Amino acid sequence: QALSCSLGRDCGTSGSDIGKGGASRPQGPQTRCALGRRCTVYGKCGHPHPSWTMAPPRNVVKIAVQMRDAIPQLIQLDQAKPLAAVLKEVCDAWSLTHSERYALQFADGHRRYITENNRAEIKNGSILCLRTAPDLEAEQLLGGLQSESREGRREALRCLVPLASDMTFAREVISRNGLERLGTIIEDGDDLGEGLALSLRAFSELMEHGVVSWETLTIPFVRKVVCYVNMNLMDASVPPLALGLLESVTLSSPALGQLVKSEVPLDRLLVHLQVMNQQLQTKAMALLTALLQGASPVERKHMLDYLWQKNLRQFIYKNIIHSAVPMGDEMAHHLYVLQALTLGLLEARMRTPLDPYSQEQREQLQVLRQAAFEAEGESLGAGLSADRRRSLCAREFRKLGFSNSNPAQDLERVPPGLLALDNMLYFSRNSPSAYSRFVLENSSREDKHECPFARGSIQLTVLLCELLRVGEPCSETAQDFSPMFFGQDQSFHELFCVGIQLLNKTWKEMRATQEDFDKVMQVVREQLARTLALKPTSLELFRTKVNALTYGEVLRLRQTERLHQEGTLAPPILELREKLKPELMGLIRQQRLLRLCEGTLFRKISSRRRQDKLWFCCLSPNHKVLQYGDMEEGTSPPALESLPEQLPVADMRALLTGKDCPHVREKGSGKQNKDFYELAFSVSYDHGEEEAYLNFIAPSKREFYLWTDGLNALLGSPMGSEQTRLDLEQLLSMETKLRLLELENVPIPERPPPVPPPPTNFNFCYDCSIAEP
């Protein structure tokens, strides 16, 4: 048996060798020394009196404990030992008496106290610190809050705030009427500066633990906090804290929420939103969404109408969404809530079916019909009887795309109910030419190929309600608002106008018939969902992107995703792709260098942004020199030997792109220069003892990718352009399919089959060295 001494060399177990190193025989079959090494010959290590120790158990962690003005301790903490015993050992090491007056605390993060409940979070390498026990700390700080000096109270609050987020400490403070003392400071309002801000922060932190309900707050206290929101305070840190506290009150207590709603005017919240302070804007938006969530549907509609009249939507779009400061996650969540609550106002119309006995709704249907067939109806309906007029109306409603001669039967479906009628009326009134063109164009087609406007509108409204989650409760964490929603009035109806024209366009691209209606709607759903996922910032951008996503493009994306999914599921295919990558990257590298050898015609950009001068650059066939020179427009590419300038590849240092290029930096950052950022690249090279640059503006994005890839290949750097990624993916897909042609319809296992054991003999092998007679 191999046994180990304390200094780590293994010793044999033969009787003649035991004890030669001055070590006694250890107990147990296999024991390690303190340094964890083994000696092959017991006793030959020459280490006198080694100590034999077992491996540390799993419930022991190695940690550091520190204390102010003391040398830190490195200890092994036994998690099975009570914390009181651990504290006793730590205090004894520092010669501290009364260990019950101390507690352990995490040294980093939120500095939480260690208790029996959270001690499992202590891991190897954790750093703890020894502090005053939470009950004594709470007693001391609450005593400081009663100090007669303002600075003494502030100092106690400074120490209280970072500890208030710890549940253990918070319970001690609350049990000693700490909330009442903080509430008194807030209500008195003697210190409207740092003291008030610290008091509000500590009060909110203590309440967030849920030990005390928000409903227990008194009305005078809430009104005093409201005053801090409505006042113009010098200390900018107080209003955000007061707004945050009122938000928690509003969300937790309906009764106090009504008080906040009546005491805090919407105009005051708008004033806070217009202050260029991100924290203040976020808290003001938080209270605004909390008030909207607590309001009834009728009150919510009045509040939102008032806010839109005050141009809140435009302000959010210009100064928050498009602010130079990146938007925080909390603000993104509140904008999502505001969007959801606004769209939620459509739920009532979405859940209400059309009433066939409503005179107003029947007139709206007639307006819809007359907007499409007004001239035709007047000429044909003149002098007709009532029955013939009803027959004519029924035929025109059929042309509009209603499934029934009585359109009320189509709109009885819930959802979308009356919301579909609202969308159709909005489209006919705000885009009359597009509406008439849609209806008349499909009326003139063959019956099987006409796109039904009314049926498509009803289904499209349902689709938009599902995509935008109209009527669904707000998520507590979601942040996926659409910037386009705040960039347009009547965004839902405007989105419908884009979608219904997209439906007609996709219908023609698919050459669909009435039997293909569901298939067309699936494609339209995918087009809208994919474009919404891009989060376009305006309706025009949304229209451009969704119209560019044609039916053919949707098919290509589907096929690409399917092939990608199939190629990534099987590990053997992944392994094959990894083996093919070096060879295919070499092929791409060769193609890039050949493209550089062909050369490209570039334009020179003058200080006035004139692009009237041309120059040609190419790579020599031996890949050692870049040759370039000026040339006239309209002439054929010059011969290689006629180019006057040369740049040896060996002198090239690095490749710069975008804003790092010197010729881009010189032009500034105006709007006219943004088009050149993505096409600019430069090569730095040694020119004597100085560094010089050869500057390029690529004629297209593709040429930019080809040249930067080629120059990176010459410099020995990786080719990381988007074009290289696409080319590599295409080549990998083609090569993988070619390699797997013989395995068509053969399932590829997740793991390779096991290799069978070798045979017992090889007598079946033929020995070729034996010549036949």
From TrEMBL:
Limits of the ELMO domain: 360-532
GO MF terms held by the record: SH3 domain binding
Record's keyword terms, sorted: Apoptosis, Phagocytosis, SH3-binding
The keyword S-adenosyl-L-methionine belongs to this UniProt entry's keyword annotation: no
GO biological process: actin filament organization; apoptotic process; cell motility; phagocytosis
Pfam families (UniProt xref): ELMO_ARM, ELMO_CED12, PH_12
Region entry Disordered, spans: 1-29
Record-linked InterPro entries: ARM-like, ARM-type_fold, ELMO_ARM, ELMO_dom, ELMO_domain-containing, PH-like_dom_sf, PH_domain
Organism domain of life: Eukaryota
Hydrolase in keyword set: no
Function as written in the Swiss-Prot or TrEMBL entry: Involved in cytoskeletal rearrangements required for phagocytosis of apoptotic cells and cell motility. Acts in association with DOCK1 and CRK. Was initially proposed to be required in complex with DOCK1 to activate Rac Rho small GTPases. May enhance the guanine nucleotide exchange factor (GEF) activity of DOCK1.
Name this polypeptide is given: Engulfment and cell motility 3
Native organism taxonomy: Eukaryota, Metazoa, Chordata, Craniata, Vertebrata
